[in-house]
Specification:
Elements lengths: L3 E8 L16 E5 L7 E5 L4 E6 L4 E2 L2 E2 L1 E9 L2 E9 L9 E7 L8 E7 L4 E6 L12 E3 L7 E7 L2 E7 L6 E7 L6 E9 L7 E11 L11 E8 L5 E7 L4 E5 L5 E6 L2 E6 L6 E2 L5 E4 L4 E4 L2 E4 L10
Antiparallel strand pairs: 1-18, 2-7, 3-4, 4-17, 5-6, 7-16, 8-13, 8-17, 9-10, 9-16, 10-11, 11-12, 13-14, 14-15, 18-19, 20-21, 21-22, 22-23, 24-25, 25-26
Amino acid sequence: MRYILLMASIFSFSQARSQQGPVGVFSDHRDIGDPSISGSSTYDEATQTYTLGGSGYNIWFDHDQFQYCFRKLGGDFILTADFAFQGDSGNAHRKIGWMVRESDDPQAAQIGAVSHRDGLTVLQWRVLRGAFMRDPQDEIRSPKTDFQTLQLERRGNLFIMRVAHPGEPLQEVGEHEMPDFPDSVLAGLFICAHDSTDFARARIWNVRIDIPVLPGQRKALGSRMEILDVFTGMRKVIYTEPGRFEAPNWMPGGETLLFNEKGKLFTLSARGGTPVLVPTGSVDRINNDHGISFDGKKIALSSSRPGMPG
């Protein structure tokens, strides 16, 4: 029985390009607010997993201290990832999550989807540079706790937070308008120890930055192929394409995939790499049941238009 699920997603996307030493899909990482203990951000390409470590007194009042792994984004976007602290010690209000800021100024206006070590999950913000964040006026709390998946979406200047436990669909926590936010912002992952003498660590995986195509818009679509381990929930991107491809299917043996793009068939290793064009002569016949014979072995094909992954 196969326990690996193949996923193909069609959406508009962009990938990080930087000359400053990117960390995964992010262009930069640094400590915000000069915490007393330097933080770090690393990326494991094999597992597509990030590890963040950081100190900092808090992300609150009129200034912040934390480790930030980020990139510049403009327009609308959707940020999604799974988060877990490493280690059970430390302040109960140490924080991880997604944050969008107008700049790397410690007093910058910002909004974040935030998970605390004690399970508290909130959408919180500083609406103007240097303003004091207030409790409960500047946050929306989820009635449930201990979420693994955090999502933060921007639609114009409206920000929407969604969350999920493993195996659950995303649930909306709340939304907030940031009327004076610029179009170009910093967006990324963060960690804060909530203690200037301590250091927190977290593992972050299934990180996705998607640019949505809204109803009525005409944009060039991009495509992303992922493999999902249904037991662990780990998703791995094996192929992205600025254009559009469709109908990925497993080849016999489970080591190779078959998909179509621009009217042609391609194979791709399940480990990723460069697609290989299937010569027309390799397709012997098309059967009435919508299967094909490829190198003497019948493969069932289907065509679908899946939505953007959440």
